[in-house]
Design goal:
It is built from 4 helices and 5 strands. The protein is α+β, with helices and mostly antiparallel strands.
Length: 164
């Protein structure tokens, strides 16, 4: 594969990010129908919120290119978890990552994660968290390969109507 170029997202990436976000949501829905689908027009609201914060020093959105084509993106942010309640260690949250299916397992995801880790380091962040779908076995393997480990398991249950 050609060289992977990682760069900051720009306003010009709006349509590409929207398409990739829709593909990300659809992929997760295919894995598990209990995961939420995209609301009508949700991709436009997602991109608008992301683009409004391009200059936010606590958020980072990066694009991956191969041969001049965008093939992935990642979104991360610096977070604090109720500092008046919890002992704080600067932390980050990796909100979204998407890599086009035809270039997966070629280092694009790893390059995006490494670039985001570098940004986190610049922000004084000592760790970062993310969510991975329970049924996303390839995703879990990827996260373990970049040093991830399970810290907490998120559970899900239906609330049945009375009498069921």
């Amino acid at each position: 594969m050609a060289e992977i170029v990682i760069r900051r997202a720009t306003q010009d990436d709006a349509d590409t990010i929207a398409e990739m976000w829709l593909a990300l949501v659809a992929y997760h829905q295919m894995l598990d129908p209990d995961l939420p689908g995209a609301a009508s027009g949700g991709e436009h609201r997602y991109v608008r919120r992301l683009l409004e914060r391009l200059d936010d020093p606590f958020m980072c959105s990066l694009m991956a290119e191969v041969d001049g084509q965008v093939v992935g993106y990642i979104l991360g942010m610096v977070v604090d978890l109720m500092p008046d309640i919890f002992d704080q260690r600067p932390g980050g949250f990796l909100a979204d990552i998407y890599v086009e299916p035809d270039v997966r397992r070629h280092g694009v995801g790893r390059a995006l994660v490494e670039a985001l880790k570098s940004w986190f380091r610049e922000q004084g962040v000592q760790h970062f968290d993310w969510h991975v779908a329970a049924r996303n076995t390839p995703g879990q393997a990827f996260w373990r390969s970049v040093g991830g480990r399970e810290v907490m398991v998120r559970m899900h249950a239906q609330v049945e109507a009375n009498g069921d």
